[in-house]
Amino acid sequence: MKLVPTPGARLLFHLDRQEAFLLPQILQLYPRIPPAHQALSRTGRIPHPEANQQLLNEALAEQRAENRQQVLALLADRQRFAPTKTGGRLSLAPAEVEWLLQVLNDIRIGSWIQLNEPEAMPPKLDDVSVRDLLFMEIAGFFELQLLAALHKEE
Fold it and tell me: Which of 17, 52, 55, 60 is most deeply buried (CB count within 10 A of its CB)?
């Protein structure tokens, strides 16, 4: 994934064949973080913890649904994501890059959660955990590529 210099505010990325195949596949996984995973408080020292947790869960569900629609719209929009002879082209506004980083991070962290939050490589991997590990690594790869491109842009 390489940033292509262009005039204007949009960022244009060239993806090789493998990246152009993997990016839509990995984005289709959004969201990966389980809905009830994010607690409002770890200590429980908040007023009305159940009601406030419910409000948080509802807000997160609404945000995830909106993000999911944006992911599908991005993948369907040939002006922003299109195949080329050598792979693919991804055109994003700077705010869309930030949003895409958040989506990819959800996929990466959600995959890590599915692996039971290991601190190191799990000693034994079955078919499901290999898949989750692969999802985590691919999402992380795209995050790093976007961050590197943003760093070069600055």
Answer: 60
Asked whether the beta carbons of 60 and 38 are under 8 A apart, the reply is yes
Q: How far apart are CA 111 and CA 85, in angstroms?
A: 32
* CB 122, CB 129: distance < 8 Å: yes
Question: In Å, how far from its chain's centre is CA 81?
Answer: 16
CA nearest neighbour of 64 among 121, 113, 110: 110
How many beta carbons lie within 10 A of that of residue 154, not counting itself?
4
Q: What distance in Å separates the CA atoms of residue 77 and residue 89, rounded to the nearest whole number?
A: 11
> 78 in the Ramachandran plot: left (φ > 0), alpha (ψ -120 to 50) or beta?
alpha
